[in-house]
Amino acid sequence: MLRRGVVLLMLGIGAFALLEVTARFYVFGAAGLIPERINSVRGLPRTGYTQPSPDRRIGFELRPNLDGFFKLVPFRTNSRGLRDREYSLEKPPGSFRVAVVGSSFAMPAGVAIEDAFHSRLEEALSAELAPRRVEFLNFAVGMYNPEQVLAMLELRALAYDPDLILFTATRLSMPWLAEDPASPAGRTRRSLYPVARFPFEGSCPILRSFLYRLIGQRTGTDSVDWSEQIGILESFYMQITERPPEPPPKRAREEALRALAPLPPAEGSVIERLAGVAERSGVPVALIRLEFEDREPDALDREVARQADANGIAYLDTRDAFQGTRASDLWIYALDPHPNAEAHRIFARRIDGFLREKRLLPRVDS
Questions:
Q1: Among 168, 222, 291, 314, which is disulfide-ready with 102 (CB 3.0 to 4.6 Å)?
Q2: What is the 3-state secondary structure (H, E, C) of the chain?
Q3: Which CATH number describes the domain made up of 55-194+260-357?
């Protein structure tokens, strides 16, 4: 009976391992069988790619000179911590610069940087307008809320002397855009989404069960935020292998605590303050709703569009370019609804037409 029990146990473990490998291959393809790639399937706070920002309004930022993987694809940053190639702070003579700010859809998560919509636009427009150079500088960082995106624009992006600003937003951003943070609803929202998270912890996703996650998704029982969830095996492994992080110096801890403290509420909604940035800097702003789910705009969408129009901001909802598509076909993989490379190709095509329609790009003969 003991031998039979051991044999059954080993058969059970073998069957589970085979199903787990099959699930990983189904979700991620061949990349799901490579430890370095599968360990990149985690939320941004658990990558080790972020650091506290010296600017309190920004909270945290990408570390400079990174070279690794994030959500299966190569992930590199330049010397200034931007997920982009190197750009000089001073704008080259005769060039046209576009500053792209936003969160994970624009960073983008799970898509090679050359396939991002702004990279596609930079390549296509530079070829069309040659010898004039068009530069799309990517300041987007995953998990930023619109307050942080606005801070990144004011404190970092404007220093590069852009000729146009693309302020990107997603469905989660919409309530932030139209609400005054001093209002009761604005205060509640700001308390739910702290500006910074400190410290940022590591993880080892290879020890999680993606079979379990896939079954949970298919049956509708996967209600856990798996991007941040630590499994039992992973937790045990990290306890016995990871050295406890050394506490940061007193000054760094004090700065981190100040960053976590609620910021004093600004006056006006994000859209109203974005319009103020455009007026003071003299740089036109386009508000781009990056969305690829084919559904009708709701009341909040219409309110954001109304406020943008009232404040003189060109507004685009990209969903009209995805009519007749199925959103899940455009996910980076089955367990993560970030837009994939094909979605970014459609984003680029739609944004290109919008910018031409609004005459926000330089003319070919200029």
A1: 168
A2: CHHHHHHHHHHHHHHHHHHHHHHHHHHHHHHHHCHHHHCCCCCHHHCCCEEECCCCCCCEEECCCCEEEECCEEEECCCCCCCCCCCCCCCCCCCEEEEEECCCCCCCCCCCHHHCHHHHHHHHHHHHHCCCCEEEEECCCCCCCHHHHHHHHHHCHHHHCCCEEEEEECHHHHHHHHCCCCCHHHHHHHHHCCCCCCCCCCCCHHHCCHHHHHHHHHHCCCCCCCCCCCCHHHHHHHHHHCCCCCCCCHHHHHHHHHHHCCCCCCCCCHHHHHHHHHHHHCCCEEEEECCCCCCCCCHHHHHHHHHHHHCCCEEEEHHHHHCCCCHHHHEEECCEEEECHHHHHHHHHHHHHHHHHCCCCCCCCC
A3: 3.40.50.1110
Distance CA 142, CA 151 (A): 14
Instruction: Count CA within 13 A, CB hemisphere, residue 258.
Output: 11
* % of residues, the chain, pLDDT over 90: 51
pLDDT in tens, 171-225: 988 888 887 766 766 666 655 554 444 445 667 787 888 888 888 777 766 644 4
Cβ atoms of residues 52 and 255 within 8 Å:
yes
Please provide the distance, in angstroms rounded to a whole number, between the alpha carbons at the two ends of the chain. 86
Query: For the chain, what are the domain ranges?
Result: 2-33+203-241, 55-194+260-357
pLDDT per position as a tens digit, 267-303: 788 999 999 999 999 999 999 999 999 888 888 899 9
Instruction: List pLDDT tens digits, range 12-37.
Output: 888 888 888 888 888 888 888 888 89
Give the model's pLDDT for residue 198. Answer: 45
Structure tokens at 239: 């306890």
Mean pLDDT in residue range 48-62? 88
Q: pTM for this structure?
A: 0.87
